[in-house]
Amino acid sequence: MTNIIKAEFLKSKRTMSSKLIFAFPIIALVMAFVLTNGIENAYAESAWNWWYAFLLPGMIAIVSYLSVMREKKNGYYNIKTLPIEKRKLMLGKIAYFGILVLVSNAVIFVGATFGGTVLTTSVPAYGAALAVIVLTIAELWQIPLFLFLSEKFGMVVELIVCLFITVLGVIVAPSAKWFLFVSAIPNRIVTPLLHVLPNGLRAQAGDPLLSSSVVLPGILITLAWFVLLTYLYLNWFEKREDK
Predict the structure, then answer these.
(1) Can you spell out the DSSP letters for 15-35?
(2) Number of Cα atoms under 13 Å in the Cβ half of residue 36
(3) Burial class of 145 by CB neighbour count within 10 A (0 to 12, 13 to 18, 19+)
């Protein structure tokens, strides 16, 4: 598996995908600076909110599509010729994408923490560091979903679905039904870590959304979705290649 992941990094070297994992967090940081310029205790809050609510799902969708296009361009040469199970190769690709998400989350953490120190912020550094890990785990389910949509329907349908589930997640996250919609879970479980509400506003002391009791259940639910979607995607891909 390690060699498969290394191969994915080599294939993506100097490609657009390798640049987007840094470009998207930087966009979030710049947007936050422009939108909160002069507002106290708002920079890091805005950067994180723009990131996990909209830009991170968009980045996963676009990078997934670009990866699929690279594979289609060479006729899935690596998958068809290497003496390795197709399922294992694609699982390695999914793991590779998970690492990219982790790197991007780390970039937003560094930028938001540094910027927040300069511009003032109420986002706790320890909670933000935990959010890097929690958010990475909570967004893994999107990888097999967007790979499937890219393969099956193309970029337009994939981005429409991405936008729909992203907006739905933001709307549902503050409600009592947050755990029923997987796209709402990441927005909900980072609230007690970042002290930022799903709508981007700073959470006030005593707000019920600051309860950390949602974090572990949220992680477990998103992991279950990730396992299910990965299983379905790998089965679909294997049967597709056999035809």
Answers:
(1) SHHHHHHHHHHHHHHHHHHHH
(2) 27
(3) buried
Domain ranges of the chain: 2-242
The span from the CA of 39 to the CA of 106, in Å, is 24
Is the Cβ–Cβ distance between 201 and 50 less than 8 Å?
Answer: no
Within 13 A of 234's CA, how many CA atoms are on the CB side?
Answer: 17
Burial-class residue 138 by CB neighbours within 10 Å (0-12, 13-18, 19+): buried
Per-residue pLDDT of the chain (243 residues; tens, 9 = 90+): 788 888 888 888 888 888 999 999 999 999 999 998 868 778 999 999 999 999 999 999 999 999 998 888 776 656 655 566 778 888 999 999 999 999 999 999 999 999 888 877 779 999 999 999 999 999 999 999 999 999 999 999 999 999 999 999 999 999 999 999 999 999 999 999 999 998 888 888 889 999 999 999 999 999 999 999 999 999 998 887 555
End-to-end CA distance of the chain: 26
Which residue in the block uniquely carries the two structure tokens 């205790």? 41
Q: In this structure, which long-range contacts are made by residues 207-214, counting pairs with CB atoms below 8 Å and at least 24 apart in sequence?
A: 209/174, 214/178, 214/179, 214/188, 214/189
